[in-house]
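Worked example 3 (structure in, sequence out).
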């Protein structure tokens, strides 16, 4: 192994070398041979089981390409066409009027709302033992889309769920078995499986641990029994084999590989980054194919640069590092390229201030709570509160994470490794022209009942499963509420009652009861 490369990789992943902590696997290949392979941290903290080359990781959305490949194998078999209307195969689940094709689902241009927010609205929590039928019933309730098919691009896990259902119905074989027999076994991905249920034992599986930047880790389990958009479990040595197949196809025909790696176009002719279970973009003048995954605290990234014959696999059982950014750092290191340093605009930055900060449209809905204790400000996170550590440039680092905040009067710039989000101090009373909000509403496509009521001097929103949460206001006539970090939505009055807009489930009307 190149000692200089080893030193550089360990420097990039230095927090995985500090005592008892979760970690991951790194595999870097050039020209078809491994130039770096490393294992970091522990797969199981309770029993001090280290990560090895044989450790298995849940790879979350990196799974999507295997779902697409399964569908494309059925097309190779002459059993379907990816340009077929999905009603031919799952018509009993579809109650929206627009025709949607298989291809539109795996290109993420179908307009079908994402299953996670829909499940949350129904009162099904992320840690419930969610079944495939739970998602099927959620889809059956849908009568409208986020947008007309092919007229927008919005990531939708629901489409990949439906793809797995189509595979099962057409092949008459359970999806996990089909993928094992038709893809994993022929490619010698011998340690790779699709987890069919939350109770399935997977030998060598790394546990998932949440890092909130406080120096401690919390066990963050996956309890659902879902596949299609997720639930492939594998190791780096197995996963890299799919890139070998893309480079030199032997199992799949060339048209199948081309479909997985070709970016989709919208009706207006504009190209998007999503292909068929993989994404593509240009980085440092090089065409990159990649896909990431994030479920619970599992994180992963699969990256391929054909021009440089470079392949990077990064799999982890914690969220300490942003996988996409870290994979690019590893790629730059392997190629001897200069990786641009992270920069933050801190002009006008001021001291951290406690309060509630919210986004407004068109940004995705987010609520951030900053508290103060003994002169130190903290960000409230899923498993606790992380201190805001002042930096030399007047930004504040969130604990030990690669996340920063820049406070500037009434606004807050939340600097994540892959994006930046602008928030502002929340208002506690609605705008004068926002219209009345108090009342009880039913959202028929999720059977979600929400009650907006006066709670002291402020308004609140109640949900039968989640309880009551404050209703804040964004200054543009909309309110925003959240039950935890997963279920956060904008709300605004409309003629029918109220309109709800989430992250990937939008323009949902709820009628006043």
């Amino acid at each position: 192994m190149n000692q200089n490369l080893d030193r550089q990789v360990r420097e990039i992943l230095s927090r995985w070398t500090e005592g008892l902590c979760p970690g991951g696997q790194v595999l870097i290949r050039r020209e078809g041979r491994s130039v770096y392979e490393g294992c970091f941290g522990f797969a199981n903290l309770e029993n001090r089981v280290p990560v090895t080359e044989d450790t298995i990781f849940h790879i979350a959305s990196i799974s999507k390409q295997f779902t697409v490949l399964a569908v494309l194998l059925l097309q190779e078999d002459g059993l379907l066409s990816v340009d077929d209307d999905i009603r031919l195969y799952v018509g009993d689940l579809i109650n929206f009027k627009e025709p949607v094709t298989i291809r539109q689902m795996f290109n993420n241009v179908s307009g079908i709302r994402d299953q996670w927010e829909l499940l949350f609205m129904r009162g099904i929590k992320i840690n419930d033992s969610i079944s495939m039928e739970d998602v099927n019933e959620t889809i059956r309730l849908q009568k409208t889309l986020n947008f007309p098919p092919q007229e927008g691009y919005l990531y939708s896990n629901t489409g990949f769920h439906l793809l797995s259902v189509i595979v099962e119905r057409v092949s008459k074989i359970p999806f996990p078995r089909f993928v094992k027999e038709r893809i994993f076994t022929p490619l010698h991905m011998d340690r790779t499986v699709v987890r069919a249920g939350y109770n399935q034992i997977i030998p060598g599986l790394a546990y998932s641990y949440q890092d909130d930047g406080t120096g401690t880790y919390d066990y963050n389990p996956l309890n659902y029994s879902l596949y299609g958009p997720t639930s492939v479990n594998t190791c780096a040595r197995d996963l890299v084999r799919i890139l070998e197949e893309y480079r030199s196809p032997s199992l799949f025909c060339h048209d199948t590989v081309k479909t997985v790696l070709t970016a989709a176009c919208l009706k207006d002719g504009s190209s998007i980054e999503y292909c068929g279970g993989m994404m593509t973009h240009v980085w440092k003048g090089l065409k990159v194919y990649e896909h990431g995954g994030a479920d619970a605290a599992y994180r992963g990234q699969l990256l391929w640069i054909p021009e440089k014959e470079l392949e990077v696999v990064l799999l982890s059982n914690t969220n300490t590092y942003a996988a996409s950014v870290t994979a690019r750092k590893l790629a730059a290191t392997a190629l001897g390229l200069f990786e641009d340093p992270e920069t933050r605009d801190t002009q006008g930055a001021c001291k951290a201030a406690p309060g509630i900060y919210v986004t407004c449209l068109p940004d995705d809905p987010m609520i951030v709570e900053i508290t103060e204790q003994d002169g130190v400000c903290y960000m409230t996170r899923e498993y606790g509160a992380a201190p805001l550590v002042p930096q030399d440039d007047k930004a504040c680092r969130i604990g030990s994470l690669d996340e920063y905040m820049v406070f500037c009067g009434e606004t807050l710039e939340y600097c994540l490794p892959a994006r930046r989000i602008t928030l502002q101090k929340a208002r506690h009373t609605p705008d004068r022209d926002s219209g009345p909000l108090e009342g009880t509403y039913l959202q028929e496509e999720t059977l979600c009942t929400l009650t907006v009521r006066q709670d002291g001097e402020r308004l609140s929103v109640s949900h039968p499963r989640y309880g009551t949460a404050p209703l804040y206001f964004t200054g543009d006539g909309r309110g925003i509420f959240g039950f935890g970090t997963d279920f956060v939505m904008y709300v605004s009055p409309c003629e029918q009652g109220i309109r709800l807009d989430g992250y990937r489930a939008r323009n949902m009307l709820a009628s006043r009861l």
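Notes: The chain has a mean pLDDT of 95. The CA atoms of residues 210 and 218 lie 5 Å apart.
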